[in-house]
Design a protein that fits this description.
It contains 11 helices and 3 strands; from the N terminus they run H-H-H-E-E-E-H-H-H-H-H-H-H-H. The protein is mainly α. The protein binds zinc ion (ZN). Residues 127, 131, 178, 184, 187, 230-231 line the site of zinc ion (ZN).
Amino acid sequence: MLRQKHLILFILILLVLTTFSTKGYTGSFFDTLELSLEKNIGQNGYQSIIAQKKVIHLPEEEAAHLNAIFKSLVNTCRRKGELEFTLTVVEDKTVNAFALPGGYIFVHTGLLSFAQTDGEVAGVLAHEIAHVDRKHSMNAIKRQIGMSLLLQLILDKNKSKEEMAKVGNFAINMSQLGYGREAEYEADRYGAYFIERAGYQKEDLLNFWRRIQGETGGKEDPLFLQLFSTHPPTAERIKRIEAL
Ligand SMILES: [Zn+2]
């Protein structure tokens, strides 16, 4: 029964595609629907993160300063007009940051204490913004759940809560596990571009990684474990960022 439903859905989509593709409607039509699904997935994931982790409200001046850095980076990215990027500080002493679809960026208090300069913070935030800007999470979701379920979620006005929670959890897992080496290098490349356009230096970002490497001597350290498991080897990424 479900298969039949999918088949009918596919035929309908194909019809729409063939009817409108020459007129250039479908691209924007599906992009709009996909965008609204992305926001929905992000919102779902955001809710479940803030239910699990303690959100930290920094003192007013510090918060304004951090938000100004964040805004200056968001303003350099391609998707700034279609998404409302938000930054949430959560209590966690590990040095980490992550992003959910729809522009929900999280940073751990541990990273804020480890970073020595605005440029270092900017470097990490820019990397996370780049994941969203390059749709790494949405692309991974598409690969994972398949086009048919994705279309179903897009077209179903009363989205099944269960399915949405499932996809939201998948997005959270991806944000913790990383998006694969190529996506990580791409986020580094775009991140470096964003920080330079926002007035910071690539060197700031490199300092951050060099300090991490110095601190851990390349060995596993629980404070940095997440960064190591989600990202390519530090030495390799430093080399690549230097070469940009
Ligand atoms: Zn990453």
